[in-house]
Amino acid sequence: MTPVRTRPLLAAALALAFAAPALAADPIKVGLALDISGPFAAGGAETRDAINLAIRLLDNKLGGYPAEFIQADTAGSPDQAKQIVDRFIQQNKIDFFTGPVPSNVALAVGPALFAAKVPFITANPGPSQYAGAQCNPYFFGQSYQNDTWDEAAGQWASDQGLKSAFILAPNYPAGRDHLTGFKRTYKGNVVAEVYGKVGQLDYAAELAQIRAAKPEAVFFFLPGAMGINFIKQFVASGLSKDVRLVTNPASADEDTIAAVGEPMLGLFSTSQWSHDLPNAANQKFVSEFRKAYKRYPTFYAAQAYDAILAMDAAARDVKGDVKNKEAVLKALKAANFQSIRGPFKYGNNNFPIQDYYLRVIGKDAEGKITNKTLSTPLKGYRDAYWQQCKLK
């Protein structure tokens, strides 16, 4: 009688093993290289907080499967980030990667991740190299391509009839991309293109140059403390009475507003996301973030939250079998999640085709200084580099 009873049990066990391979597998592992200290710490903290919120709302799972999230601080250093990624790959055997804020870190860690076939779903940087000739099937620039914010800003400045602009950014890959984007769509005269040091806090020399150049507008990309100090010094100098200040969310989001206050009023910026977008997914995110952290989220937080949603959707689509790399890439490309920014899909280069919004900083009904969305200068917009990418 024994064989009669055990064969069905053995068959059932084998059937379960083949039907649900992920059930007995290790948890899905996600490497989070975060810039918690260093010059990009403000964005790093926002990234961390949004990821932790998403993890909690997903009950520490991706696609319904157990997940492990391994965090480390890069301090904004490419060399330190490379060491972290090597450890993530060799020791932790990660299945997904996200986290860094600056483009130079993304460019530094990309080669190791691509060689190991680990999908890199960016929570912020969108370097032009990865959008064009160096595009890679394992890089998903789900936030934005660096130039695109500023292409929207250049378009808006042109539409406003601003005939001359002084443009300013730190001298590193993202800084160069952002100013390139502005110049691509701005139809006026760029009177000066100035690159400062990463981490620079004193802008007396640049303010003197602006005063001498007498532009109608100043466009700048100065994330974190750089932007905070520049805006304070710009307004204190009296230049804001005659010169229109235009930027992107790196210097015009809720963290900068909290640090600067009243001098931010009237500042225009362009972004692919804003906390007042009316879609249901965004309103849920903003509500949960404010409940957890007692403040409005920034674009860093929004992008990081979407990055986890992208992983969650992909893990669900492959039924937890994240070792099937081809299936995972296909699932990530499908983007079967509700982005909090609104309409969203990937182009051939794995960078978004999405809308870009114009915002202005003012006071809401409660008297709180915050961003308000005004219009959509670019709709269904894709970056300028996609034709250089050989992916389909």
Automatic annotation (TrEMBL):
Alphabetical keyword list: Signal
The Leucine-binding protein domain, residue ranges: 27-362
Signal peptide: 1-24
Keyword Zinc: no
Keyword Zinc: no
Family named by the database record: Belongs to the leucine-binding protein family.
Protein name: Amino acid/amide ABC transporter substrate-binding protein (HAAT family)
Organism in which the protein naturally occurs: Pseudacidovorax intermedius
